[in-house]
Write a structure and sequence with these properties.
2 strands; mainly alpha; two-stranded antiparallel sheet
Length: 116
């Protein structure tokens, strides 16, 4: 056994089930879900509107906006734009709200694991 193995053998074991049931961890999960679920619903609705419009309103989707650019093309490109915007907003949200709490939980677990 190496010195590192011995250190891990004597370290306190972390009970992750207990950690998962702490208010701080549940609060982190709530914060995450309060962002992710509404955004997922919004994006899926937006996507289905696009698909339904393509199927049931082809004349509207074929309406030219300028040159060969149609409403359907703009809706399709809007899907990509929306994906990138949601991603950027999520990253910002995670950096501001989720990551600090997760870092605190991680630091506490590392202290607990090393027996500090």
């Amino acid at each position: 056994m190496t010195e590192n193995d011995i250190g891990h053998a004597t370290a306190a074991k972390v009970d992750f089930v207990v950690v998962e049931n702490t208010e701080r961890f549940r609060s982190l999960k709530r914060s995450h879900r309060s962002f992710v679920f509404p955004m997922a619903v919004f994006f899926l609705l937006w996507y289905f509107v696009y698909v339904l419009m393509a199927g049931w309103a082809p004349d509207f989707m074929a309406t030219r906006v300028w040159g060969d650019v149609t409403v359907g093309l703009l809706f399709g490109l809007g899907q990509f734009v929306t994906t990138f915007v949601i991603t950027m907003v999520y990253v910002s949200f995670a950096n501001r709200k989720l990551d600090p709490i997760a870092a605190e939980i991680r630091a506490d677990l590392e202290k607990q694991e090393t027996g500090a």
